[in-house]
Write a structure and sequence with these properties.
Blueprint: E1 18-22, H1 29-40, E2 47-50, H2 57-72, E3 77-81, H3 84-89, E4 94-97, H4 104-111, E5 116-120, H5 125-134, E6 138-142, H6 158-167, E7 172-175, H7 184-189, E8 193-196, H8 198-201, H9 207-221
Parallel strand pairs: 1-2, 1-8, 2-3, 3-4, 4-5, 5-6, 6-7, 7-8
Helix pairs in contact: 1-2, 1-9
């Protein structure tokens, strides 16, 4: 399953930003499965990244076996955070590796050419170029805003998104404290995906409304990739 830009399969449909959902770092799998179903009923979502911290591999396996079918049945790619070995074992659609995780080349070796491998690049265009030239399916920039979920090591500005979207064909993902209220400039700057945690799962009106409202903002601020980058 490819991690595709919205509209990339139809030249008459303008491409715009899509949601990249990330799980909370700790969760009750059975309860979260219901929340995930609600979120995916709210509108377009590109993928779900399973990002669980400080738990054993069997707990990750359990969560994957429950959550992966829910995502894939909706056409949503299921991405494992940090662990290409488990992504391969559990037949996930791909893996996301951070700056301190396994190198891209090793992740690709474990998963093969037909799976998604995304790479965290902080605010570094050079790191993103290196990853893209090596074959990464997308690169992630951030943090763009303060986040209650994860302390940011890097802070990125809109210029990195503008430059990337205007000069490359590899999709980019923005991450870090993104909400329905502050995401408009990221969409205008050309982000292909917005990675979101708290603004979905902690949204007062629930995850379905959260996804719907993000997509409404995308429709308001989105642009077609008429520069040929789609």
């Amino acid at each position: 399953m490819a991690l595709a830009r919205s509209g990339s399969g139809d030249e008459n449909e303008p491409a715009t930003t899509r949601l990249y959902l990330i799980t909370p770092p700790a969760l009750d799998t059975e309860r979260f499965a219901k929340e995930l179903g609600e979120a995916l009923a709210g509108g377009d979502v590109a993928c779900l990244q399973l990002r669980l911290k400080d738990i054993d591999d069997d707990a990750i396996r359990h969560a994957t076996r429950i959550l992966k079918p829910i995502a894939q049945d909706r056409g949503v790619a299921f991405i494992m955070n940090d662990r290409p070995d488990l992504a391969a074992e559990l037949d996930c659609d791909g893996v996301h590796v951070g700056e301190e995780d396994m190198p891209y080349a090793e992740a690709r070796r474990l998963l093969g050419p037909d799976h998604i491998v995304g790479v965290t690049c902080g605010s570094s265009r050079d790191r993103a170029i290196t990853a893209a030239e090596a074959g990464a399916d997308y690169v992630a920039f951030g943090a763009f805003f303060p986040s209650a979920t994860k302390a940011a090591k890097h802070h990125a500005g809109l210029e990195v998104l503008r430059d990337w979207s205007e000069t490359t064909v590899v999709p980019c993902c923005a991450i870090g404290g993104i909400t329905q209220q502050n995401c408009g400039p990221l969409v205008e700057a050309g982000a292909d995906f917005l990675a979101v945690i708290g603004a979905i799962w902690s949204y007062p009106r629930g995850p379905r409304a959260a996804v719907r409202e993000f997509n409404e903002v995308f429709a308001q601020y989105g642009r077609g990739f008429s520069d040929g980058s789609s």
